[in-house]
Write a structure and sequence with these properties.
Blueprint (H helix, E strand, L loop, with lengths): L6 E5 L3 H6 L12 H7 L6 H12 L4 E5 L22 E4 L2 E3 L27 H4 L6 E3 L2 H10 L6 H4 L11 H13 L3 E5 L2 E5 L16 E3 L1 E3 H6 L1 H12 L13 H11 L7 H4 L16 H35 L6
Parallel strand pairs: 1-2, 5-9, 6-8
Antiparallel strand pairs: 3-4, 6-7
Helix pairs in contact: 5-12, 7-12
Length: 332
């Protein structure tokens, strides 16, 4: 966001369609029609999000999109089919169109559309192929209680998220999309900072005629980033082809602060720490993991017995997905 001369940043655009629009996949605001209308995104479809991205790209700058992968994937392990607004239907020679049938009357998923073999998302393969995917992960022992805090008092009054949904942890969806992108050769087989390190050839067999040779796999662990911000950002920039400058590490002027406030305004209450910061600096000491017993005590003190139980179940259910992705992290 500090490189406005060369980059244009978009913050979680796919959440508009996932939560609020006629193709919404999430039940979070299903019983709050007025809330969906007040969001300003009640007409957003996956097609309108893609159209916005295309418009932004036409400005000539490279786009950097921070988003959450489970916004593209039906929740709770449901099989995927292409979003109706992105499903092209022939209407004659040289013409095609897309439609949403009865889209405003409740959640429409599962869609009455054709799935793509192996694709766990509602976005067609040819559109996914336009993106250069990189991945940011965090151990669920840290991310889950952090997110839970946003869904209970007093913070829920700011976020508008009044209940915790374990399906929004997103690790299973990230794991499946990551493997899909690898299987079709869109990412890998090389790994950022480890160009000679390739996964077994059997894990990179071609799918539908697509071969290996995508961009290198670039996965960052949030704890690695906090332990060595400069090193990790340098490695990330090298992987994605963005020149690194030390000015990226600070946003301590009003212009940068204003942009951050505007970018994060849509998800009020979730990004207070980021908004109130002015630089990315190395933390004084590495975070030492607690034992499970220590974690449970800590969570009970903060969130009560019920909250601690839900957090523990969600952390345990997602740790294997985190550990799988962790093996692909860049190292510095």
């Amino acid at each position: 966001m500090t490189c406005r001369d060369t980059l244009k940043c978009l913050h979680e655009p796919f959440g508009d369609a996932f939560y609020y629009g006629p193709e919404r996949l999430s039940p979070r605001f299903e019983d709050d029609e007025q809330g969906r209308i007040d969001s300003g995104f009640d007409a957003s479809t996956f097609a309108t999000v893609i159209e916005r991205i295309e418009r932004e790209r036409d400005e000539g700058k490279r786009l950097f999109i921070k988003d959450i992968i489970h916004y593209l994937v039906p929740p709770n392990g449901a099989s995927a089919s292409i979003a109706p607004s992105l499903q092209r239907k022939k209407r004659g020679v040289g013409t095609d169109s897309a439609s949403i049938d009865g889209a405003s009357n409740g959640i429409q998923y599962p869609f009455d559309t054709v799935p793509e073999p192996g694709n766990p998302t509602v976005i067609p393969r040819d559109i996914l192929g336009k993106f250069h995917f990189t991945f940011l992960i965090r151990h669920p022992r840290y991310s889950v209680p952090s997110y839970y805090r946003c869904t209970v008092p007093p913070l829920d009054a700011k976020t508008g998220f009044y209940d915790f949904m374990s399906s929004e942890a997103g690790y299973d969806e990230l794991h499946r999309v990551f493997d899909y992108l690898r299987s079709v050769g869109q990412v890998g087989p090389t790994i950022a900072t480890r160009p000679a390190n390739k996964a077994p050839a059997s894990e990179h067999e071609s799918v539908d005629g697509y071969r290996d040779g995508g961009v290198e796999i670039c996965v960052i662990d949030a704890d690695d980033l906090l332990d060595d911000p400069m090193g990790v950002i340098k490695a990330y920039c090298k992987s994605v082809g963005v020149p690194f400058t030390e000015t990226m590490m600070k946003w301590d002027n009003e212009k940068d602060q204003k942009q951050a406030r505007e970018a994060f305004a849509k998800w009020f209450g979730f990004h207070e720490d980021a908004i109130n910061s002015c630089e990315l600096r190395k933390r004084e000491q590495k975070k030492k993991p607690k034992s499970k017993a220590e974690e449970d005590v800590d969570w009970r003190e903060k969130f009560g017995d019920k909250g601690a139980k839900v957090i523990r179940e969600t952390v345990d259910a997602n740790t294997e997905h985190y550990e799988y992705l962790k093996q692909y992290c860049l190292s510095v």
